[in-house]
Amino acid sequence: MGLWPFEAQEFKMANMEKKGSHVKRQKGGLITMPFIFSNEVCEKLAVVGFNANMISYLTTQLHMPLTKAANTLTNFGGTASLTPLIGAFISDSYAGRFWTITVGSIIYQIGMTSLTISAILPQLRPTPCKNDAAVCQEANGGQLAILYVSLLLTALGAGGIRPCVVAFGADQFDETDPKQSTRTWKYFNWYYFVMGVSILLAVTVIVYIQDNIGWGWGLGIPTVAMFLSIIAFIIGYPLYRNMDPSGSPFTRLLQVSVAAIRKRNLPMVSDPDLLYQNEEFDTSISIGGILIHTKHMKFLDKAAIVTEEDNIKSSEEPNLWRLNTVHRVEELKSVIRMGPIWAAGIILITAYAQQGTFSLQQAKSMDRHLTKSFQIPAGSMSVFTMVSMLATIAFYDRVFVPIARKFTGLDRGITFLHRMGIGFVISVFATLVAGFVEVKRKQAASAHGLTNNAHATIPISVFWLVPQYSLHGIAEAFMSIGHLEFFYDQSPESMRSTAMALFWGAISAGNYASTLLVTLVHKFSAAPDGSNWLPDNNLNKGKLEYFYWLITGLQLVNLIYYIVCAKMYTLKPIQIHHKGSDSEDGVELTKKV
């Protein structure tokens, strides 16, 4: 199965055009994908290679208590998923996606280098524990400071990479060209597939190196790979199709809000055609198409009502703090409409986050031997998540979509809203199953008299955890890719980096929600006898299954919420000027994208 299974003629048409006797290469197209993907692959190799085993690093190398280590991990994940909002703002407003990715990658490189040095130099870590665990010394303030500064730099660097790489790759396909516009949904599938392969490599090879050779090598290899990817990404610059930044999208949203408030007392016009429209003015921020008026949120339409004070006869631009075009009003409506769907993704990420914390601790306590001399690193258990995700993506792209297309008539098979809904349902089963597996694990510990021994290996196969890991992978193949499609497709063209940042913002909120949930459960489940659902030192004495089932209940409520939001959601209507139509100049079509 080739990575880009398109006909050779389509590839040539996407990248070349003939002018007279000369052949001129167009910007963008499939040829740019290796350069763009190399950056994302190495970023994922670095961050996942560390995150997959980070709980082990914090507990065994820095000697943190389990709950503190789990919260450190989710806080870092939350911060790294929140910084894309900053990167998206800079990209959409000033720098453009290429330079934002480049600078972000360099900052990420500095953070990874610092992290690698801290893993190599013994004085930057506490002394190893002696046989008696009671004399373990936790990392001091200086050692933790180096760790946190390194993580902060990687989080800031990720903020420049994550919101821009996805949108930058999609930018290489021209939406105004019918031959390319239908390729974006397939691009998202293969983007996630390539990312999944890099994650698979991270949770197997990199984690194995960390556990068996050392953290210096385990972090050093991704650091070198990141350096090489930066060079490859920059080399591809002449081939890229770059979109110029169109000014701060947040300023435009604020201008519409202010204008609507200032004109709140005006009566609404009877005919939407009387609202202010200026296609020439809006083309600078939306080359692919102009948003048309929708009937929802009529209060915001007042920002486009023309009054004598607006003085639009002047050749100068209107005062955007008083008067905005219909397109700019619809930009704000689009963002508001996406909000409820965005929020639905938070709880799913909260559930998914447990794979890197408590599910990993479950794996560490179980029999992980494949042979007498080789055992699976606990951090590599997420390989089952990745394999399931990759298999699901391939099945979805090659089998499911062609079959579904015959029934729905949609090029992408089913809508991204349906795809996300399937992911939500599967995620519910993932945490439900995880709770029952934890009951089985504790029964095995009790049967062998190991309940009080936190460090003993329980004679139960780690493969009991495969169903929960696999279900999470299948859920991600549906939900996360559907989420990406949703944000890119439904966001205003000038705000696509910001839209990708919203995707990462949901991941950030989900990680922070996990931190809050773990903290609250740990606090309120504590009993006078010292028992706790989520104990600090001995998972065998806890009630982790109750925690999993609590998340299952939250996901069920969230699923109902999502179904209501999806049924009420209105797709973005846009007027597109297609290239290569039957008419000489093209034709404008009004459609819901």
Give structural notes.
By secondary structure, the chain is mainly α. The protein folds into 2 domains: 25-244 and 332-575, Growth Hormone, Chain: A (Up-down Bundle), CATH 1.20.1250; 249-331, no CATH class. The protein is 62% helix and 5% strand. It has 19 helices and 7 strands. The chain has helices at residues 8-15, 33-61, 66-82, 84-95, 97-120, 141-171, 178-181, 184-212, 215-235, 249-262, 279-282, 298-301, 326-352, 358-364, 383-408, 416-447, 466-490, 496-524, 544-568; strands at residues 16-19, 22-25, 289-291, 366-367, 458-461, 573-578, 587-592. It has a 3-stranded antiparallel beta sheet with strand order 3-6-7. Strand 1 (16-19) and strand 2 form a beta hairpin. Helix 4 packs antiparallel against helix 5 (97-120), helix 5 runs antiparallel to helix 9 and helix 8 (184-212) runs antiparallel to helix 9 (215-235). The model is unreliable at 1-24 and 577-593 (pLDDT under 50). InterPro entries: MFS_trans_sf, POT_fam. The chain crosses the membrane at residues 106-124, 145-170, 190-209, 216-240, 374-396, 416-437, 501-526, 546-564.
User: Percentage of helical residues?
Assistant: 55-70%
**Weakly predicted, low-confidence segments:** 1-24, 577-593
CATH class group of the largest domain:
Mainly Alpha
Overall outline: globular
| Shape-level CATH architecture of the largest domain | Up-down Bundle
How many strand elements?
7
Number of helices: 19
Element string (H = helix, E = strand) = HEEHHHHHHHHHHEHHHEHHEHHHEE
Percentage beta strand: under 5%
CATH topology of the largest domain: Growth Hormone, Chain: A
Structural class category = mainly alpha
Q: Count up the domains.
A: 2
Major beta-sheet overview: 3 strands, antiparallel
Average pLDDT score: 80
